[in-house]
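Human: Respectfully, please carefully check these C-alpha cells:
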Amino acid sequence: EVSVLNGGFKNWVKEGHPVTADVTQPTPAVFKARLNRALVKTFEEMVQNVSSLNFQVVDSRLESGHIPGAVNIPFHSFLSETGHEKSIEEIQEIFRAKKVDLLKPLTATCRKGVTACQIALAAFLCGKRDVAVYDGSWSEWFHRAPPHYKVSESKRSKA
C-alpha cells in the first residue's frame, strides 16, 4: 500500500495538520517486494520503441532534448499553484491536449527516473494503472543512444 501526500509536507503543515518532532519506534515488519517487469522499461526496449512505436513516451522534464517520438509534459503541469494535484478533469485535458491516449500503452521518462513518476501518478489518478517508467531516463539515453536518437530542440527548429 502506497500513499502520496497531496500538496507535500509544506501544505500539510500550512493546512494545520498535526506534526511532531518526537522520534518514533516503528514496529519492525517484513516487506517482500515483487518486481513487475511490465512497469519498468529498459534502454533496449526504449531503442526498439523508436521504430516500433509499441508504446507512447511522455517526458516530464523542462530541458530540451528528448527520445525520438516522446511528448513533453513537464511534471509540474499536473500540479496546482499550491502544489496539490489538479482535478482529474484537468489532468485528462492535459493528456488530451498533448494527444496522449490513456487507453494505449504509456511509458514515462525524465532525467533520472524520479519526476517521471508524476506522469505515472497523474495517469493513475485518471484510472490508468499500468504506466511504465524508463528509470534510466535521459541520463542513460544521452550516454548510450546513437547520436541520431538524441533529438534536440535546436536541431528540430532548423528542420
Remarks:
- The first strand starts at residue 40 and ends at 41.
- The longest helix spans residues 43-52.
- The chain is about 30% helix and 10% strand.
